[in-house]
Write the structure tokens for this entry.
Amino acid sequence: MKSLLLMRHAKSDWSADHATDHDRPLNERGVRSALAMGRVLTEEGQSPHLVVTSSAVRARTTAQLAADAGQWDCEVIIDPRLYGSGADAVVQVAAETGSADRVMLVGHQPTWSILVSVLTGEQVDMKTATVAVLGFDVSEWHDLPGSSGVVERVYQPRDYLA
């Protein structure tokens, strides 16, 4: 059994001075949400064994803040294919992740909502910093393409922030 955690990047700062969409940072609420989600996932026994994040600043920052707050003892890999790509490309990234049982991908809308639907047939509102935990009855990640999973749990930061 493998678990795929899909985390949408936390709230970004549209007013920040940045050259491109790729360079947009998190705002204060985004930082708080990313930290909270890292702690929550650890408390819930959902710490990833590997994190792969989009190369966008807001996604990379979300991944690192969550990993630090949750004290995850795992590698965080930056993969530019997760920025601006579709569901098929994201599935391919997941299929290449190796032997980790619980993998987190950090990326963007609308791809994350589409991906949940493609992989499970279910609809999840992937608001900023939301984590959807998808379960798959596969022994290796390379078996992910073409398989169908289930939404096991959805974590939204609004449920954990005061």
